[in-house]
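Because discrete structure vocabularies remain unfamiliar, we reproduce here a specimen of the format, pairing a chain with its fold in token form:
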Amino acid sequence: MASSTFPTVNKCTSIGREKHTVVADMDGTLLIGRSSFPYFALIAFEVGGVLRLLIYLLASPIAAILYYFISESAGIQVLVFASMAGMKLSSIESVARAVLPKFYSSDLHPETWRVFSSCGKRCVLTANPRIMVEPFLKEFLGADMVLGTEIASYKGRATGLICKPGILVGDKKAQVLKKTFGDEKPDIGLGDRVTDAPFMALCKEGYIVPAKPKVTTVTSDKLPKPIIFHDGRLVQKPTPLMALLIILWIPIGFPLACLRIAAGSLLPMKFVYCAFKALGVRVIVKGTPPPPVETSKTNHQSGVLFICSHRTLLDPIFLSTALGRAIPAVTYSVSRLSEIISPIKTVRLSRDRATDAAMIKKLLQEGDLAICPEGTTCREPFLLRFSALFAELTDELVPVAMVNRMSMFHGTTARGWKGMDPFYFFMNPSPVYEVTFLNKLPKELTCGSGKTSHEVANYIQRVVASTLSYECTSFTRRDKYRALAGNDGTVVEKTNKANKVMGC
């Protein structure tokens, strides 16, 4: 049965489908894009690095030739082998859980989603490796079942080969569907090409998703679950052109990042702003920062505590750049390399409340101090819950709204080595940091006037969120690491058996 015999998906009603079963293809159907190249490229780069991305890019023309002149399955097999062969299955699963959902969700087809989301039982039948697509489909689209290509493995590593019955295209999709559902026909079948016709013919109703040059993607608020946390180094989807630009830029970008870091670390802080500007790093300062406070043991004057929203571990450094003077920062942990190259003093918090409180009070007696009470970074326009400890320690509180813009690389990670975070940020061709100083908290809104620490913390969170047009959440560091890394963000350091936080 040719795909032209099926009506288009816009003619499918989505009313009264609560007890119906839908089976949908993925590329070109659930997703607007018909090419899976970018998602295999993400696996290649995030697990194997730039060299693996280069190998994958070189293999892609071979895959394209096989796809168009031999068979669809042969082309996909090359992409699977080039991107996954030799990789740990656990690493592929980690990228599929933490990185791919952000990119998949930005390509969701509105008409397909309208029908898919209206059905009570949802199944996806795809040629993509199941290990690669299942976390997104089940967790964010509410799929009950994912039938995908199964990749072969040996001792926990992908061989790059495919298990029987092979790549799920054409008749093989129909065979798997028949085996799964038996004599019970699914109510709706959704596909986008001739090779989807065999499985669509096994459904009570079949609808084709036509390729259109301009389709508006589903907005994030229409998803069953918003994507607040995501990982990975790449900002943009690695299309073939973008993948080539990344490969060509890294040999230029890494030395440039080293030069930018050296300028920030070695120059006096009052010159860093101009040095960054000359090197292509834009620092935008808004609001009026408070003047430095003269403190001493005799006058008992407390320094100002800058309460910053947390975008990267560089927040305190750009705060200092905006002020033109070095402001020490307390952190939940940074890598040893980041401590070495940091131009400001960083002091680690122990997560013992009494110990941390005493240390922060001591630092405030010496001068101004910066803290990021979210405890970890968030890339999306959300603020995580503010820890309330800071509000108990001083009434000299200045909220600071931090926001940054990166065009190629993210300067944060939950899965990778955090020592590379500043390098990736400064590897962007023209990174931007915007520092907005808000009004100092009035005395009547501080703990000194009877407010509880939680009231103060929540108020500052709302003020910063309002300034940035962000949304306040109650999510914590632990929620982030459970979502992205499958742990609570702590590891046991063998040298002293003490829990050390994995980083920002």
Notes: Confidence is low (pLDDT under 50) at residues 491-504. Residues 37-69 form the longest helix (33 residues). The CA atoms of residues 285 and 450 lie 33 Å apart.
